[in-house]
């Protein structure tokens, strides 16, 4: 899928639901066992009542109906409700819940309640409001949890300097700093221009005696995977093992996806096996990743197994439908992809361009441009506006159908649209672009190959040998000799292999 399939993976690693749980939980206050119990008991009760409130209706009505039914309001109910609302990005409701709890006092507020209040106040009203609120909170609750949440809330707003000042204050008060604070700092410094600060952050983390945590290593691995740097990714993984930190399902998902993208399928299989062994329950995010992975590995049996598990969940997300469509399309099971598409259409409705793109991508990858064009017309008629991803997929479909002129026009239509950096860096976008380049390379169209290849330098996708070999193949097919190709390849971060030297040897024949 050239929509946002791999972006869902990026989102999955960034969210890390277990980290979010620990983030708001004070040591010794609420255990994971209690959280699971509350989630099981109340998932259709207080939290659901709050979530289903009509827009504009006070949260107080949900609390009152809950109490009228004879249920007291416990901290665990609020804890579960807040985590549900955070996951659904309903920050306004979350703040209203906490304001009601502090105002009505159904139980004696604790540090966790005040930390929630600070968090959502800053999210909705800014840091200055949060700091004023912080100063009014009883001093007895000015502890490590409240300070850690204050720092994280500031970091969520991207205000690093103020966060560092609060961290300094925590050291003076001898409050332990959470690894989640450093996780957020690392993420904020993950861009190429700021990445050099990460080793210093890790040194400071050690100086503050913050124990190594699997989530920190997962973030570091994800950064390297995003830059297509397998060597550094594996170094981080080795450091994690040396620190005796046990990898979790997220760790193995990162490793599996990275090796699948690099077309190292034997290693991918090994990491997929590790994912299956470490998976905790029916976590939909991990199941979505497994759909992608079994699509790469071409395993129809395993795809069907995972899809069956997903269908048995209480609710199947549109994203899961789209990933299943793409995965079955990747292994050539078009009829199965169409079946799932029709099922998504009937159960979820077609509301987004991403839904249409998922099926268009399958048709275009296999050269069924007529089917893709019909779906494109239905998309426009339904009010969904095609995006750059749509046009790039259609361009590939045109090329695979031998419609080179139409492909170039379609490609240019997409280039006129705004394309976010996140989309340009996504693996589906890069893989579709490579598929287009491969068709141009077979035709010896060096001009269009070079034009599109520039995108790979910006994203570092050209670190893979097979990507650079496609460029060299274009020159060979065009019977053009370029003495700088090997140098460009090495400087781009790719390692020449047997195919590279074979292609270069053929290219020698065209030396003038």
UniProtKB/TrEMBL annotation:
Ranges of the PPR repeats in the UniProt entry: 213-247, 352-386
Pfam families: PPR (PF01535), PPR_2 (PF13041)
Gene Ontology CC terms, in alphabetical order: mitochondrion
PROSITE patterns: PPR
GO molecular function terms attached to this record: mRNA binding
Keywords assigned by UniProt, alphabetized: Repeat
Lineage: Eukaryota, Viridiplantae, Streptophyta, Embryophyta, Tracheophyta
InterPro entries for the chain: PPR_rpt, TPR-like_helical_dom_sf
Family from the record: Belongs to the PPR family. P subfamily.
Organism expressing this protein natively: Vigna angularis var. angularis
Protein name, as recorded: Pentacotripeptide-repeat region of PRORP domain-containing protein
